[in-house]
Amino acid sequence: MQKIRPDMNIGQNIQRLRKKAGLTQDQVIAKLQLRGVNISKSSYAKIETNRMNIRISELVILKEILRVPSFDCFFENLSPDEIPAEYQSLSSRYDQVADEN
Questions:
Q1: Residue 24 neighbours by CB under 8 Å, 6+ apart
Q2: 68: which of 52, 73, 90, 91 fits an S-S bond (Cβ 3.0–4.6 Å)?
Q3: Are 90 and 71 in contact (CB under 8 A)?
Q4: CATH C-level class of 3-100
């Protein structure tokens, strides 16, 4: 499974979206685990602090948990050169599928 590069600073956006949703790290971790993502508190904290990669499959589940309308929310405040080209196609594909359901 493809991973998002840690140099993108996506962790700060994940943390901001989590807090906006009114969830603690423990609550998000529990919801991830219920959806089959085997992640520890330490690993999740590393994602939010950009010390660990996040899998795209995990990002898809986080989008649902945090009730984010679009994947673009994860990439706010990043310069265009920080966002990999492969993200662009994934974002539009997943957002389109979600809109159809």
A1: none
A2: 73
A3: yes
A4: mainly alpha
Closest CA to 59 of 34, 89, 90, 86: 90
Torsion-angle region of 70 (φ positive above 0: left; ψ -120 to 50: alpha; else: beta): beta
Which pair of structure tokens corresponds to residue 20?
Answer: 């906006």
State residue 77 phi and psi, 5-degree precision. Answer: 65, 15
DSSP per residue, 7-64: GG-HHHHHHHHHHHTT--HHHHHHHHHHTT----HHHHHHHHTTSS-EEHHHHHHHHH
For residue 39 the two structure tokens come to 């992640």
Global pTM value: 0.76
Spans of the chain, pLDDT less than 70: 1-8, 80-101
**Sequence-separated (6 or more) residues with CB below 8 Å from residue 29:** 39, 40, 41, 44
Residue with tokens 């993108």: 8
